[in-house]
From TrEMBL:
Gene3D superfamilies: 2-enoyl-CoA Hydratase, Chain A, domain 1, 3.30.750.44. Keywords: Signal. Pfam families: Peptidase_S41 (PF03572), Peptidase_S41_N (PF11918). Residues 108-305, 406-602 form the Tail specific protease domain. It comes from Oncorhynchus mykiss (Rainbow trout). It comes from the Eukaryota. GO terms for biological process: proteolysis. Residues 1-22 form the signal peptide. InterPro entries: ClpP/crotonase-like_dom_sf, Tail-specific_protease. This is Interphotoreceptor retinoid-binding protein like. One of its GO terms (molecular function) is serine-type peptidase activity.
Length: 648
């Protein structure tokens, strides 16, 4: 027969820990082994134990210890170390007299009533929060005997609470067969739930514990919040309740890790000696986790000093009471503003069916809603977050500025807003830091033609510097895009859908431009930086999408434009909702997140890098084009380049 790890450990213990003095009878060890074999709740760990001990005895190298208490300590260390079970202890107590406390059901009814009243406390706190403290879990038989009293004074009253703090911090005793009733009280009648499996080694029987289809009185049910308080003293049946309700996702545990007791422990005399061994004779296995609260205890959801548990539970319940209104508020905002109208029904249905059991703070709530919305919408612009700052409604002002019609003023305004130069190699340079309103651009049409496009019309290449462009009107992008296309061809640039106005606008090549168009034949290079945002990012994205320009510089800021931010009712949570979609000529909606340049370089080096590309006649290609073009790939083998830039 194979020798278990425990048997090997005992063999080493009995053979190599030697004391030169009077020896004890080998029968002590054999008797202890038999007790373990007949009673220890993990018999599978004892395979081969008797054979190993008998082998040690036959070898003549049996342990010799004169002091009995020392021997008990050595045996305890050996057994605990071998089985990794701190509940196994050996003691030398020649005068020990077992005392069996009377079973509760056998006590007179009056005494039972006093005991229950002394171990149960119920009161109602602010906002109709129930507080129930139970210091002893009574068993099924006792509960049946005191049924009317318990129903009228405890369980029926608790059902009227809006939420409940269930205090088990001082519960150190109880009976395991009382657990199913309490679990049932906090559950629905159907379906029945398998809550525990208990194996009893002396009888070699297994018992399954299930919720009950009918109980005395009304149930608290599974809809209302339940907080369970635990401490280092919480033990036994109370641990079984906390562990089960936690892993059924029915209760949030607040406080300290519980004691880690046992289902049932017996102190058994070893033969006729004065030695006793304490053995766990039964074990619990939770059907959900496959593990147990025994030894390790119940770990709290919110780990906090037991003295502070009640105050923390009150705060937690205040957070959780705000969840329904917060979710409804988020749903209403999405319904009214979200630009992807086809996704709204699925988002609202998903929010309605989401389980917020794990939420224990406003930050948790914000993260949970954000995660759920992202999983359905796949839209990074739709954001939920917790902020201590006062939320601001982010709106874009599309109203035209009050600009006088004075030609000199208009010319000076164009000179101030737009920077135009001719660089070396006859390369045009255009910088502006904001896209103006369409009506303003129309008013400045004559000056723009004279001061911008006339000087740039004969350049061989054009640099459009958006490194400091922070946004503006997206609608005015159509004007600039029209200047960069052949006016004889009608070209679709992008589509803008506005959820608030419920309008869809298509932007195509404009006819009758106020100045000479730059056309579609010459090279255009867009410079970006981490500060490039809003309409500046959108323009860079569209130039890539239209294959009209090369973007050089840094990844743009990823600023969420065309969005509104709202504070969620009675919380510090803010939801940011995009209300405009920009759809490119391929039918793809740009979801922000920053534009990745075709050539990534530091912003301050972008102009010089552009000149290098122009002068060498190099072409910057996208990664996928490079990978899919075997000719380009072959040619590149002998070309030394920046690893981020692909050249052909």
């Amino acid at each position: 027969m194979a020798v278990s790890r425990f048997s090997q450990a005992l063999l080493v213990l009995f053979c190599h820990v030697l004391y030169s003095s009077a020896s004890f009878q080998p029968a002590l060890v054999l008797d202890m082994a038999k007790i373990l074999l007949d009673n220890y709740c993990f018999p599978e760990n004892l395979v081969g134990m008797q054979e190993a001990i008998q082998q040690a005895i036959n070898s003549g190298e049996i342990l010799k210890i004169s002091d009995r208490k020392t021997l008990a300590s050595v045996l305890t260390a050996g057994v605990q170390g071998a089985l990794n079970d701190p509940r196994l202890t050996v003691s030398f107590e020649p005068n020990f007299v077992p005392v069996m406390p009377p079973a509760l059901p056998s006590l007179p009814t009056e005494q039972l009533i006093r005991l229950v009243r002394n171990s149960v406390k119920l009161e109602f706190l602010e906002n109709n929060v129930g507080y129930l403290r139970i210091d002893r879990i009574i068993g099924e038989e006792t509960a049946a005997k005191l049924g009317p009293l318990l129903r009228e004074n405890i369980w029926t009253k608790v059902t009227h609470a809006s939420s409940l703090i269930f205090d088990l911090r001082y519960s150190t005793a109880g009976e395991l067969d009382g657990v199913p009733f309490i679990i049932s009280y906090f559950s629905d009648p159907e379906p029945l739930i398998h809550i525990d499996t208990v194996f009893d080694r002396p009888s070699n029987t297994t018992k399954e514990l299930w919720t009950m289809s009918s109980i005395m009185g009304e149930r608290y049910g599974k809809r209302k919040d339940l907080i369970i308080l635990t401490s280092k003293r919480t033990m036994g049946a109370a641990e079984a309740i906390a562990y089960t309700l936690k892993h059924l996702n029915r209760a949030i545990i607040v406080g300290e890790r519980s004691a880690g007791g046992s289902v049932k422990v017996q102190k058994i005399r070893i033969g006729d000696s004065g030695f006793y061994i304490t053995v766990p004779v039964a074990r619990s296995v939770n059907p959900i986790t496959g593990q147990s609260w025994e030894v390790s205890g119940v770990s709290p959801s919110v780990n906090i000093n037991a003295k502070e548990a009640v105050a923390n539970a009150k705060n937690l319940l205040a957070v959780r009471s705000a969840i329904p209104n917060a979710v409804q508020s988020v749903s209403d905002i999405i319904r009214q503003y979200y630009s992807f109208t086809d996704r709204v029904p699925a988002l609202l249905q998903h929010l309605e069916s989401t389980n917020f059991f794990s939420v224990i703070s406003e930050e948790d709530l914000a993260n949970k809603i954000n995660y759920e919305l992202q999983s359905v919408s796949e839209d990074p612009r739709l954001v939920i977050k917790l902020t201590q700052d006062h939320p601001v409604i982010i709106e874009e002002d599309f109203e035209p500025e009050n600009i006088p019609n004075d030609p000199a003023f208009l010319t000076n305004l164009v000179d101030t807003v737009f920077k135009v130069r001719i660089l070396t190699g006859n390369t045009g340079y255009l910088r502006f830091d904001k896209f103006g309103d369409v009506s303003v651009m129309a008013k400045l049409g004559e000056q723009i033609a004279q001061k911008i496009w006339e000087p740039l019309k004969d350049t061989e290449n054009l640099i459009i510097d958006l490194r400091y462009n922070t946004g503006g009107s997206s609608a005015s992008m159509g004007i600039l895009l029209s200047f960069l296309q052949d006016p004889s061809q009608q070209f679709h640039f992008f589509t803008l859908y506005d959820r608030i106005q419920n309008t869809t606008t298509e932007f195509k090549t404009l006819s009758g431009l106020p100045g000479p168009p730059y056309g579609s034949k010459r090279g255009v290079y867009i410079l970006t930086s981490y500060y490039t945002a809003g309409a500046g990012e959108e323009f860079a994205y569209l130039m890539q999408s239209l294959h009209r320009g090369t973007v050089i510089g840094e990844i743009t800021s990823g600023t969420l434009m065309h969005s509104k931010s709202f504070q969620v009712e009675d919380t510090d949570i803010v939801i940011t909702v995009p209300f405009i979609n920009i759809i490119d000529n391929n039918g793809e909606c740009w979801l922000g997140g920053g534009v990745v340049p075709d050539a990534i370089v530091l912003a301050e080096e972008a102009v010089d890098h552009t000149h290098e590309i122009i002068e060498s006649g190099m072409k910057v290609v996208a990664f996928d084009e490079f990978d899919q073009n075997p000719c380009v790939s072959f040619c590149m083998r002998n070309v030394q380049i920046n690893p981020i830039v692909h050249i052909s």
